[in-house]
Amino acid sequence: MNEYKCGNCRDGICAEGCSRHADKLNTYDWLADLPDNAAATELVEVQFKPPRKGYYLNTNKLELTKGDIVAVEGNPGHDIGTVTMTGRLVPLLLKKANLKPGTELKKIYRKARQVDMDKFAEAKAREHNTMIESRQIAKDLGLKMKIGDVEYQGDGGKAIFYYIADARVDFRQLIKVLAERFHVRIEMKQIGARQEAGRIGGMGPCGRELCCATWMTAFSSVSTSAARFQDVSLNPQKLAGQCAKLKCCMNYEVDQYVESLKKMPSREITLHTKDNDYFFFKADILNHFITYSTDKHILAGEKTISAKRAFDIINMNRNGQKPESLIEDGDRQEETSVDLLEQDTINRFDKKGGKGKRRRGRRDDNRKKPTQE
């Protein structure tokens, strides 16, 4: 719950949609400036320890705005969370969360008082030590599971233990031991590897914070076909994220690549010209350029042509005709390096010196020449 400053709030559109707090999975309220938006519905979205969110009824008609800390109905007791959305967008988010229309929602009790905040801080301070001890207890009981995170309820009377496991785990004995050790009500909740990575957080190879730790709420399956469509090397070390699963970002642009591949010829087709036969080597999918090689296994005599030119040659070959050459006026011909390992050398960034020195030397020689009177 850190202070949030928005640089666009001075004179931007719908400035009230910005929160006073910069929490993970923040949702922007586009309808915040509409009149009577907050009073349009009793539904309120409340966020707890990310990424857990809940939807509650404001039956007490409290004047709530985004960023308010409230005490809500728990099971049992009460919990402490931050209001992240009010008004007309909440029913849409409720529908997105796949909650059935007849689901009974809990209530918001009040805005959090200082006593509530003190209990909340005390409970949060126990989470890390509880997680470490619970891991050791599960290990002593011989359970094949990993407790990835612990979340205490706002009043400290209940704790949720998030765990991952490859198979079904009988944790009835574990619940008894944890209840005797921590004197709270225990709830076990199984999560996946991607959810665990989102809770732990971290930096991705792109240099930014993990998507699952910032904005992603639903995790769709990622298959190796997404890498094939984008012509990415099937290297497990590069395709896997910190969760040891395929990176979620591989699904971001796969639809664009699939649509662009429809305008490209098949890679299995060989182009025949009067001077040689050309085999597919690589493709620039988004720009619709293809590089062909005269050898089927290595890059030799490479030629880069457009997809349109490739389709024209394919049609000519089907009619029994062969063009004079693969290259046509207007096609792009890339200058490729002969040494394919040149990009891996450590000297590729070194500047070739000598020219500047020679130029400075010539200037100095001209300056030293005596003038003729």
Question: What labels describe this entry?
Answer:
elongated, 10 helices, five-stranded mixed beta barrel, disordered N terminus, 4 domains, 26% helix, GMP Synthetase, Chain A, domain 3, alpha+beta, four-stranded antiparallel β-sheet, 373 residues
Q: Strand share of the residues? A: 15-25%
**Overall form:** elongated
- The average pLDDT value, as a whole number, equals 83
| Low-pLDDT residue spans | 1-14
- The chain-level structural class is alpha+beta
| Cα Rg | 31 Å
Number of strands: 12
The helix/strand order is EEEEHEHHEEHEHHHHEEEEHH
| Biggest sheet layout | 5 strands, mixed, barrel
Please estimate the helix content. 25-40%
Multimeric state? single chain
**How many discrete domains?**
4
Q: Please tally the helical runs, counting DSSP H or I stretches of 4 or more residues.
A: 10
Physical arrangement of strands within the biggest beta sheet: 1-2-5-3-4
Give the N-terminus to C-terminus distance in angstroms.
Answer: 83 Å
Structural notes for this entry:
This protein has 4 domains: 15-109, no CATH class; 122-191, K homology (KH) domain (GMP Synthetase, Chain A, domain 3, 2-Layer Sandwich), CATH 3.30.300; 215-261, no CATH class; 263-348, no CATH class. It has helices at 89-96, 114-124, 127-140, 172-182, 193-200, 224-229, 236-239, 254-261, 307-318, 355-368, and strands spanning 43-47, 53-57, 69-73, 78-86, 106-111, 146-152, 158-164, 185-190, 271-272, 277-284, 289-293, 303-306. The protein is 26% helix and 18% strand. Strands 1-2-5-3-4 form a 5-stranded mixed β-barrel. The protein has 10 helices and 12 strands. The protein is an alpha+beta fold and 373 residues long. The relative contact order is 0.06. The model is unreliable at 1-14 (pLDDT under 50). Helix 3 (127-140) packs across helix 4.
